Amino acid sequence: MTQTTPTGELATSNPTEMGATSLELPNIDFQNDHYPFCIVWTPIPILTWFFPFIGHMGICMSNGVIRDFAGSYFVSEDKMAFGRPARYLRLHPKYVEGGGFIWDESVSKASVLYGTRMHNLFCDNCHSHVATALCGMRYKHRTNWSMCILAFWMFFCGRYVGIKGFIKTWLPFLIVVAICGTLTYYQ
What we know:
Number of domains: 1
Order of helices and strands: EEEHEEEEHHHEH
Structural class: alpha+beta
Mean pLDDT: 89
Strand content: 15-25%
Oligomer: single chain
Number of helices: 5
Largest sheet: 6 strands, antiparallel
Distance between the termini: 67 Å
Low-confidence stretches: 1-21
Strand order of the largest sheet: 6-5-4-3-7-8
C-alpha cells in the first residue's frame, strides 16, 4: 500500500515493500514489542544495576520481530533473553542499499551465523550479533560496526520505552548507589 507524502513522494506502509528511498516507517507496536527497523535494549539483572550502560541488545526485522543472540548456539525470536525492551533506537532502511529486503536478509544471515556460535560476554555477544547484521547490510555505508560503538550509540541516542523503561534501567542503579552512599556515610 503506497501513500503520497506532503512533498509528493510515494511512501509505502508495508515494510517488505520499502525501498531505499521510502520516507515512512511502520509504526512501533509497544504493546506487542514489535519495533520495525530498530535496535532494542534491556537491562541485565545485577550487571546493569552496577553498570547502567551495559545491557542486552537485539535487532528487529522490518515487521518488528526481535532477533537477539540469547545464549550459546541460540538466537531468540520475538522474546528477548532478559525481558521486554527498555530502550530502542530507531534506524531507517533508506540507509541500506536495497532497503527493507536487504535489512531482513542481513538480520537473518547474522542470526543464522550466531546460531552456530558460542556466547562470550566480552567479545562475541548480543552486541556483536547486531553489529554483524549492520555490517552485512552496510548500514550508512559502514562495515565497521562494533559492540562498543553500539553500546555508546544506544546509551546516548536510545529512547526509553516509556516511563517503565526508564525505571527498569535506572531504579536498581540508584538503589545500589543509595545503599553504597549510606554505608559509606555511617562507617
